[in-house]
Write a structure and sequence with these properties.
This protein is of the alpha+beta class. The protein has one domain (about 40-305). The chain has helices spanning about 1-5, 10-30, 40-45, 90-95, 310-315, 320-340; strands spanning about 35, 45-50, 55-65, 70, 80-90, 110-115, 130-135, 145-150, 160-165, 170-180, 190-195, 200-205, 210-225, 240, 245-255, 270, 280-285, 290-295, 295-300, 305. It has a 20-stranded antiparallel beta sheet that branches. A hairpin with a 2-residue loop joins β19 and β20. α2 runs antiparallel to α6 and α5 (about 310-315) crosses α6 (about 320-340). The longest helix has 24 residues, at about 10-30. The two termini are about 60 Å apart.
Length: about 350
């Protein structure tokens, strides 16, 4: 074996194989599927979809204990409109509304609209609208939710929309528009129009509970009524709390105008690593985006291609790893150069040894 290695051809062939292996290994590791920490990458951490053309799909999703799917605590300078399709009122809400001029509301699941039709008097403090969307019933089975939004350009400055679809799990939607002073029910934003099928009634300070059907849609519209609303200077709405919700799979995919899914690989797809769920929260709504924060470890695909360990990215983030990799590559290239081209440095010529013999007489 030693004699074989001493042959120059064998050493050079081995060096070529090692060089190609080193290059292939570093390129391969750039695309090798590898569980990633989502919070370490800005694009993966801030999971965003574009208006009207994309949606976020959460599969095998469960709520954390004592948390809601969506919660909004109200703002005196914001109005809230909600559409729920299809849904039915619970018994308590039906009892309240049966006393109205319109009589008993529909008992069967229908489409419901809860809309701010009147601002009311310009004096006094406005009413606040509260919203809670919870999973019903609370079981251990995972659910599937779809999040998207549609917003026309002329609405972008004053509205923020959100649409939630539940494939199989019924949801409970609680609504209440409440005045700061219970004795003053006619202030700004206090009057709502509630409509279910052909039934319609104007209501004030009436608590409502809707129970949705499977494959239901909940459309929520946040309306800025004043510059005093909670929207930031960047135009992003952050006042509604989402989850946290835990999902085994998260997908961002393209949808067409009719709501059907495009036949193309997902823009992004996460699959939980070792069944440790991905956590999603911190809802942000803008004029052209819907964004959630994602944390946890997951296998990731972008446009159908796996994302994995990126050597260049690791070098930028870890100076020790960068120095180690560059040093190893440098030593390897120096060895290849010496092997193929030899040592071209000029060696000093040896001077003749002086003649120490005594001269002949």
């Amino acid at each position: 074996m030693k004699r074989l290695w001493e042959r120059p051809v064998i050493r050079k062939a081995t060096a070529v194989v090692l060089f190609l292996a080193a290059v292939a290994l570093q390129v391969f590791f750039k695309n090798l599927p590898w569980p990633l920490r989502l919070e370490d990458t800005e694009k993966l951490k801030n999971l965003a979809v574009a208006e009207g053309s994309q949606e976020i799909v959460l599969r095998n999703a469960k709520m954390r204990s004592m948390h809601t799917l969506l919660s909004y605590r109200g703002n005196a300078w914001e109005a809230l409109d909600v559409d729920v399709t299809p849904a039915r009122l619970d018994e308590q809400s039906t009892g309240f509304l049966s006393l109205s001029h319109s009589g008993r509301p529909p008992a069967d699941p229908v489409s419901w609209a809860y809309v701010t039709q009147e601002r009311g008097p310009s004096i006094g403090e406005p009413c606040r609208t509260f919203l809670d969307v919870t999973v019903e019933p609370e079981t251990d089975a995972g659910s599937e939710f779809h999040l998207s939004f549609h917003l026309s350009q002329r609405e972008s400055d004053s509205l923020r929309r959100l649409e939630i679809k539940s494939d199989t799990t019924p949801l409970r939607v609680r609504l209440l528009t409440s005045p700061p002073d219970p004795d003053k029910l006619n202030g700004p934003l206090c009057t709502k129009t509630l409509q279910g099928a052909a039934w319609q009634e104007k209501i004030r300070n009436v608590p409502l509970m809707f129970v949705t059907e499977p494959r239901s849609n909940i459309r929520v519209v946040f309306i800025a009524e004043s510059d005093k609303s909670t929207w930031g200077q960047d135009g992003l709405f952050r006042s509604a709390e989402f989850g946290p919700i835990l999902a085994q799979s998260v997908t961002v995919r393209k949808v067409q105008e009719d709501g059907t899914v495009e036949k193309a690989p997902p823009v992004l797809h996460f699959r939980a690593f070792r069944h440790q769920p991905i956590a999603l929260n911190h809802l942000t709504l803008g004029s052209d985006l819907l964004r959630l924060n994602a944390t946890g470890r997951a296998w990731v695909w972008q446009d159908g291609k796996p994302m994995g360990f990126d050597v260049i990215d690791a070098m930028q983030k870890n100076l020790e790893f960068s120095a180690l990799l560059l040093g190893a590559n440098g030593l390897f290239l120096a060895w290849l150069r010496k092997l193929f081209f030899g040592d071209n440095r000029e060696r000093p010529t040896e001077e003749a040894a002086p003649d120490l013999k005594p001269p002949n007489d």
